[in-house]
């Protein structure tokens, strides 16, 4: 996000990362660094250890004192990036609150993960002997509970942001990318256009996909089809290859409706001249002419400029969660998770990032801060060099003018404290 | 589908395939064969050559006489399977009409495919010199127009079925699987639980995915979340691992809502005891306790038994279209497309079918009817053998009691007339 507010000091900065010193993942020294091209920064970051109390099954809420007495803990590790827009407030609240939501929700389900007799069978075995036809094999695993935790935590965090922003009369929203290492698996939850990839010795594994007005066109158009009033007669839900003009009326034009992955022809009518609900391509794609992302937190008050049309109904706060099981992979010493906001990925593709990661780590074998130095190096590459008034990449392409935040998280020896 | 009506003769039968004798795809001798276990058969099939007249660009509808004078033709080849339920009528109408819809829609867009200056740019070049910022590169290709044709043709066919069934006071619906070979590419459009795979020399390529209440749970639950009245207070939109009972109230239970791929815990309330919108697993999964598929044609009048709850709002008639470009593959002599209704795939997996295909064709090199014999062979395998009152597979598993229809379509030398 580009910004107003929240000025940050010049030069490199370890951004809001309140819990990083508490991290016991020994060799993990992630850094979040901002390109500092603009005076202001809307990216926010968080990382911390999440301690989960093991609740006794069957305990009611009012028996919380028993929980507090519990001495058993499970530990998770958490990293997150939030790219704010329309001000940094939503990103700040999210960076302070999302890990708390995750911790709470994990404690609610941890019985189902650790107990031998969870509240309802995770094993698929028959639990209703008198009525076996009602019991089905759903293959539900502990992993599915953690995925559910992340989905519910994002939704709760979005609600809190809505209340907080309304109470303090603030506006804005943010994307959210969160990684959770828990019980030998890495969960990556993404709502927005940030990205996380695993750079392994012989492989690059994408852990997220981007949610933009373009990638979610059909969901957005379908909602407008179901609730036409959401467009208030100001937008058309059809997609066209370009904005139509008055003299196109009566001509045949390519179009797509909500149910189409392919294209068709229609004869242009006057209503087709309205601004399209989803318009533009790539980084220029916009929802209602307003937002460049289709998922994220906040934006509860956001309206299309000079109208009463709300954007929030078209936004989703639900992340897509991808899981990586370390038990099924032989993790090597220089294998890392790279998380970054769109400022990095706009100018460097996965392959280029993987190349930088591998060559940097090969050339810097002994530096105890090699992973945070690598994060800096990646930001440097995307930030480019100033030539006159322009920032340029090495290959003379224009550099990223967006905020750039990067985590590089080593995956080897991750359970050593 | 299992059936009432539409009795078919005993033994093997080349089913409704009105246009097969007109096929000029020389070595192509597809057969549709029914298992004949039950007295009645709801599967329907169609295959034909589709001749597309090339319309002059800019011609209006009332200049149709000019089109009729046109002597230029493009040719497509079409195969389709329809698995009826609640009677064969919808499947019969679809088998008579879908290829006509496709032909009509193809003629509407064929200008965009063949003309050097199509109605609006397919090339992505700027067509609006006065306003270049409105022109975007969408990478729209001729292929995307054919995909759009199939999507729109399924929708139109569904409307026609609705009108026809209402006019004749009939009920029922059907799944639809259609393959179209056109301009060097194979398009496979699927709405339902039939399946098509390419069995190539060194590879098996799935060309469809199944649409069932289970695979489309989130879409279906989301609709119920947006329009709760569709459930009329009789169903719960939540998914549970098993049907809940009175004494579960107050207990913790695993559940999923529309936005969840993972699972969470909730405390069972009385409302959770209602029958679930999507219930059951695998072949037992049902939408509103009524239908085993979530996409298809027809079912406009279908209501949940003893209620006024309509099923149609939760159904989609839109196919997912997958494209296979022959130009990018070296097609070998025994490479085939296998299309079949769920009766086959319920008892044979892709790998088993591929094994039967390869060994049968290797052992039958010279038989001019080897492909239709192979289709018969596949049906035989899924149909099993009668032992007492049961039909059994070779490995003593129970055989398919459903109708079984199979097309085996050779892909080599496909353009020879």
General description of the model:
Two copies of one chain form a homodimer. With 417 residues, chain A is an alpha+beta fold. Helices cover 24% and strands 21% of the residues of chain A. Chain A contains seven helices and 18 strands. In chain A, strands 1, 2, 3, 4, 13 and 14 form a six-stranded antiparallel beta sheet that branches. The longest helix of chain A is centred in the first third of the chain and has 26 residues, at 89-114. At the A-B interface, helix 2, helix 3 and strand 8 of A face helix 2, helix 3 and strand 8 of B. Chains A, B: One of its GO terms (cellular component) is mitochondrion. Chains A, B: Residues 24-411 form the PPM-type phosphatase domain. Chains A, B: Pfam families: PP2C. Chains A, B: One of its GO terms (molecular function) is [pyruvate dehydrogenase (acetyl-transferring)]-phosphatase activity.
Structure described in brief:
2 copies of one chain form a homodimer. Chain A is an alpha+beta fold and 417 residues long.
Oligomer kind = homodimer
Please outline the major beta sheet of chain A: 6 strands, antiparallel
Distance between the termini of chain A: 35 Å
Cα gyration radius of chain A (Å): 23 Å
**Which stretches of chain A are low in confidence, meaning pLDDT under 50 for 5 or more residues running?**
1-32, 131-135
The number of distinct β-strands of chain A equals 18
Work out the helix count of chain A. Answer: 7
Class by alpha and beta content of chain A: alpha+beta
């Amino acid at each position: 996000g580009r910004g107003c507010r929240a000025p940050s000091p010049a030069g490199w900065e370890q951004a809001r990362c309140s819990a990083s010193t508490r991290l016991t993942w020994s060799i993990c020294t992630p850094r979040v660094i901002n390109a500092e091209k603009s005076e202001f920064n809307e990216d926010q970051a968080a990382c911390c250890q999440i301690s989960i109390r093991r609740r006794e099954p069957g305990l009611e809420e009012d028996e919380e004192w028993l929980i507090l007495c519990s001495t058993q803990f499970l530990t998770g590790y958490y990293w997150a990036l939030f790219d704010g827009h329309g001000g940094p407030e939503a990103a700040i609240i999210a960076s302070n609150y999302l890990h708390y939501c995750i911790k709470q929700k994990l404690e609610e389900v941890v019985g189902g993960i650790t107990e031998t007799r969870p509240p309802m069978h995770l094993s698929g075995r028959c639990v209703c002997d008198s009525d076996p036809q009602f019991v089905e094999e759903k293959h539900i695993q502990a992993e599915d509970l953690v995925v559910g935790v992340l989905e519910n935590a994002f939704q709760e965090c979005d609600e809190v942001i809505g209340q907080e922003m309304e109470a303090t009369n603030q506006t804005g929203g943010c994307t959210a990318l969160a990684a959770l290492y828990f019980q030998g698996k890495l969960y990556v939850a993404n709502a927005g256009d940030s990205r996380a990839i695993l750079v392994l010795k012989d492989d690059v594994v994408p852990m997220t996909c981007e949610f933009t007005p373009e990638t979610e066109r059909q969901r957005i158009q379908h909602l407008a089809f179901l609730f036409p009033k959401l467009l208030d007669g100001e937008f058309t839900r059809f997609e066209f290859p370009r904005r139509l003009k008055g003299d196109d009326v009566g001509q045949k034009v390519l179009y797509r409706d909500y149910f189409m992955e392919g294209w068709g022809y229609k004869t242009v009518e006057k209503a087709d001249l309205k601004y399209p609900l989803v318009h533009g391509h790539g980084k220029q794609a916009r929802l209602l002419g307003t937002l460049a992302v289709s998922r994220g937190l906040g934006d509860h008050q956001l309206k299309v400029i000079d109208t009463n049309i709300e954007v929030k109904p078209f936004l989703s706060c639900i992340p897509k969660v991808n899981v990586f099981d370390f038990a099924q992979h032989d993790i090597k010493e220089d294998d890392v998770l790279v998380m970054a906001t769109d400022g990095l990925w706009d100018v460097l593709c996965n392959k280029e990032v993987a190349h930088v990661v591998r060559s940097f780590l090969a050339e810097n074998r002994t530096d105890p801060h090699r992973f945070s130095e690598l994060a800096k190096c990646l930001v440097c590459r995307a930030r480019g060099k100033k030539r006159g008034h322009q920032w340029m990449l090495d290959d003379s392409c224009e550099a990223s003018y967006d905020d750039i935040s990067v985590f590089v998280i080593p995956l080897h020896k991750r359970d050593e404290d």
